[in-house]
Design brief:
Elements lengths: L1 H13 L3 H14 L4 H18 L3 H19 L4 H13 L8 H14 L1 H14 L3 H14 L4 H11 L2 H23 L7 H13 L3 H11 L6 H15 L3 H13 L8 H15 L3 H14 L4 H12 L2
Helix pairs in contact: 1-2, 1-3, 2-3, 3-4, 4-5, 5-6, 5-7, 6-7, 7-8, 7-9, 9-10, 9-11, 10-11, 11-12, 11-13, 12-13, 13-14, 13-15, 14-15, 15-16, 15-17, 16-17
Length: 315
């Protein structure tokens, strides 16, 4: 069935398995060429592969992705995720490849009519990409007021506070103060959603409070919809901070033994974080093997390649 292939493709894209995602999407499109979800799935897979390629081949993938996303909005003008993806694509691509801030903002308007909070969020993200923090901030506020329990809205807002436009406007200390104020305020609304809890944990981590970042994850493991994602984040906090390294290794080992929900860097990231922790513990050969496992799964994984470089220099 075409919808099943489209759903499978989008699930694979969330796991960053873009070649498999593209294959599934192509199957869906071949069975029903005008299915909006299939066109969206193929556009997402092509866009993901373009980001990973980082070479001239990425240009063709990016252009093909734009064509698919536009076609998805034509096939079903009520498909909100298609407007989000198309709006971000218009904003991120340079003008020579079809990028346009004006067209991106038009997508936000169309999305706002379907999903008001997500439309406000898209408007905020577009303005953020333009470096217009003071204009973007009120749109984030509108989105949060409408959907305080939406982990995507919460996560994008907290991530925005740690990006260059916010740092330029607020200063490093001001940015950290905002993160430390917003994280506990927003946590209750997303306490059962893994992506929301991870966003709060990242906010504490980026504000220089890794112990609180760890505790937030640990305290919500039994509450969230996707605990494997929290275990992967525990590994990230341990790797980034040097705290709780043995517990972080245990969490990552469990991630690598069990099915991993989508919306994360997947198994390559788990191996990479494990390698970082092992290197921090002085277990260099094990760290090298972990980095190699990550690169087997994703030869372009930037973190794993940097870890291998660090291990070579440390010989």
């Amino acid at each position: 069935m075409p919808p099943a292939w489209a759903a499978k493709s989008q699930a694979l894209s969330s796991l960053l398995r873009f070649p498999e995602a593209l294959s599934a999407a192509e199957r869906a499109v071949s069975l029903k060429p005008d299915l909006a979800d299939a066109l969206l799935a193929r556009g997402l897979a092509r866009a993901g592969e373009a980001i990973r390629q980082r070479d001239f081949g990425a240009l063709r993938s990016a252009l093909d992705a734009m064509d698919d996303l536009r076609a998805a909005t034509v096939a079903d003008p009520t498909l909100a995720p298609a407007w989000t993806s198309l709006g971000l694509a218009y904003e991120m691509l340079p003008g020579l490849l079809g990028g346009s801030t004006r067209k991106a903002l038009h997508c936000a308007e169309r999305l706002r009519a379907l999903a008001p909070a997500r439309g406000d969020l898209l408007q905020a993200l577009i303005l953020l990409e333009e470096g217009k923090w003071r204009e973007a901030e009120p749109w984030f506020g509108r989105a949060l007021a409408k959907a305080p329990q939406d982990p995507e809205v919460v996560g994008q807002w907290l991530d925005a506070l740690d990006r260059k436009p916010a740092k330029k406007a607020l200063g490093e200390a001001g940015k950290n103060a905002r993160l430390l104020a917003e994280a506990p305020r927003l946590l209750p609304g997303v306490r059962t959603r893994a992506r929301g809890v991870i966003a709060v944990s990242d906010a504490y981590l980026h504000a220089g409070q890794p112990e609180i970042a760890w505790n937030v994850l640990h305290d919500h493991l039994g509450l969230v919809d996707a605990p494997s994602l929290l275990r992967l984040q525990l590994g990230k906090v341990a790797a980034a901070s040097g705290l709780h390294r043995p517990e972080g290794l245990l969490a990552l080992d469990q991630v690598l033994r069990e099915p991993l929900e989508g919306g994360s860097g997947g198994y390559p990231s788990a191996w990479w974080r494990k390698g970082q922790i092992l290197l921090g513990l002085g277990r260099k050969e094990e760290a090298r093997r972990a980095a190699q496992e990550a690169l087997k799964l994703d030869p372009r994984h930037r973190g794993a390649r940097e870890l291998m470089d660090a291990l070579r220099q440390d010989r």
